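Narrative of accomplishments. A recurring question from our advisory board has been how the design workflow behaves on a single, concrete structure rather than in aggregate. To address it, we present the structure tokens for one chain from the evaluation set, followed by the sequence designed for it. No filtering or post-editing was applied between the two.
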């Protein structure tokens, strides 16, 4: 990832995304998603694929063995959330879980590994099943692993 401290931060134009990030950062990583049935979130910081600007996105906290699953559900919308193209272009990201920030590298999952992580993600956040039914696209799953 380009050094986020050197890039220009561009808050999301989407109100709920921008507000969730602001609440999360103001609470030092303690705020949950403020949506119906909301739960714990993490914030990923990416470099914009087109703009090169720093972007921050709240995603549901799905962690196992120090790895995090980023489910690009977009609430079952027709298109992937913007952070997917950012990660595909720049797979090294900063992830904040609570007050802890670390650098991770992301890779898209496929095959058996995707199936196992999907099952785990749905067990943590069952709403993903409903959102997958709402869309014709296959929801991308990205695994974020610590960069040592």
């Amino acid at each position: 990832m380009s050094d986020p401290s050197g890039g220009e931060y561009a808050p999301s134009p989407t109100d709920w995304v921008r507000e969730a990030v602001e609440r999360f950062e103001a609470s030092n990583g303690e705020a949950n998603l403020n949506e119906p049935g909301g739960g714990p979130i993490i914030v990923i910081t990416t470099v914009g694929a087109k703009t090169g600007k720093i972007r921050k996105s709240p995603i549901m906290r799905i962690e196992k063995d120090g790895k995090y699953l980023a489910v690009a559900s977009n609430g079952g919308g027709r298109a992937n959330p913007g952070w997917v193209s950012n990660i595909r272009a720049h797979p090294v990201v900063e992830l904040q879980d609570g007050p802890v920030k670390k650098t991770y590298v992301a890779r898209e999952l496929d095959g058996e590994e995707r199936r196992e992580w999907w099952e785990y993600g749905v067990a943590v956040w069952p709403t993903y099943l409903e959102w997958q039914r709402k869309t014709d696209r296959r929801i991308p799953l990205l695994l974020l692993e610590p960069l040592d």
